[in-house]
Specification:
Layout (H helix, E strand, L loop, with lengths): L16 H4 L11 H17 L3 H8 L3 H8 L7 H11 L13
Helix pairs in contact: 3-4, 3-5
Length: 101
């Protein structure tokens, strides 16, 4: 026999003051080289007609991580740079070259 209850059993959660103050979230400072990598990733990906999801899958990375790298909000390791270059079949150094070079 099943007994149904109409009583809601939600637990009350109290946020700590630190969770309420998002202005104190640590931000990664801007970097010209990170901007170059972000721009080149977007260009090479667009040349292939690939979505961020496809490139992330081909490289074995998370799409949200790739999105943050392309917005120059996330640092990228040398290993992940190499994985992205390999997925697009280009030399990793091409992701580091500025357009005016």
């Amino acid at each position: 026999m099943i007994i149904w209850s109409t009583e809601c059993l939600l637990k009350q959660v109290v946020l700590k003051p630190s969770a309420c103050n998002l202005s104190r979230v640590k931000r990664t400072p801007k970097s010209k080289l990170r901007d170059v990598v972000a721009r080149n990733l977007r260009l090479f990906r667009a040349e292939r007609g690939w979505s961020q999801e496809r490139l992330a899958n081909e490289a074995g990375l998370n799409r949200t991580y790739l999105s943050a790298v392309e917005r120059s909000e996330q640092n990228i390791s040398i290993d992940n740079l190499a994985r992205l270059a390999e997925a697009m079949q280009i030399e990793a150094s091409k992701l580091l070259i500025t357009a005016d070079a």
